[in-house]
Amino acid sequence: MKLSARGAVEPFHAMDVLAEATKRRAAGRPVISMAVGQPVHPAPHAAREAARRALDVGRIGYTDALGLLSLRSAIADFYQRRHGVTVDPARIAITTGSSAGFNLAFLALFDAGDRVAIARPGYPAYRNILAALGIETVEIEVNAENGFTLTPEALEAAASARGRIDGVLLASPANPTGTVTGRANLAALSAYCRDNGIAFISDEIYHGLTFVGEEATALQFGEDAVIINSFSKYYCMTGWRIGWMVLPTALARPVERIAQSLYISAPELSQIAAEAALGAEAELNVYRDAYRVNRDFLVKRLPEIGFSIASPMDGAFYAYVDVSRFTNDSMAFARRMLAETDVAATPGIDFDPRDGNHTMRFSYAGAFEEMSEAVDRLARWLA
Length: 383
What we know:
Distance between the termini: 50 Å
EC number: 2.6.1.1
Cofactor: pyridoxal 5'-phosphate
Structural class: alpha/beta
Domain Aminotransferase class I/classII large: 30-378
GO molecular function, one term: transaminase activity
Keywords: Aminotransferase, Pyridoxal phosphate, Transferase
């Protein structure tokens, strides 16, 4: 059988670690998984009740490819209420999680051979999806010198070295670094892309989970950015597979055409639940405060056991740490750690193919008791 080269992309190692952790848990091992960004909390009560009512009626079917108008209107109201930005619901597309949003954005904006700049370290699915589509990634190192975020100066230098950049993808808060790109920096990046005819994609799926700094949407600096968001993280709805995009007007119909053939529509049941979740901020902010407690605990304890913090934990729910004191092979270290302590975390090689062998990412989206127990196990193991 002839196989496509597209299937030869790097695996998402976090999911491989999760699969091994799940297998060990099924075998009766006391596994604590800090490998993926899976909130310990359930979907908001209102979302679950809305889904129950819909199931009682039982008429769950296709929706328009761009999603239920009521949900798209509710998201438009959210931007007005939260950020003071007016968005036409016609510019909003409901997607099967943010993952489908990235697929749609990449397909609608770029052709094979185009170049898209992303941060390194950064979310591996960006790099892998782009590679599968024949789009070249221009990875730009982010570190303390540039505030762990992309800047116009870094993009200018990358373009000089690699050739024209056709797109820029920025996450804030970022995975795995936790970077929150401030309002001024986000405005400067947006303006640079606009002035240079570069497509700008703003990944905002960790909005609502900012602990330090100012949370801004790229919509505040113009209507030409593509916004990708999700109900997975702040709204604790990972398994519902529901997200959204805010699109420039000219991009709405191309995205709709591609979505019609790739997905038909996002699941209607999840759309109904998501609309109810938009009004659950009081409940969700209690969950966010629990992540903050976990964050503050790990900021103190991880360095005490030998894992220095490698980047600011300002947002999202990840600790990205330097483990070079113990290993120069983060994948082997992650496997051994799981086998010997039943604690799962993600090797840094997932996020940084060049320098990630000495880093690890720990998710702190779990229960505090699990965070505490995991650190105690690791402390004994490392000692």
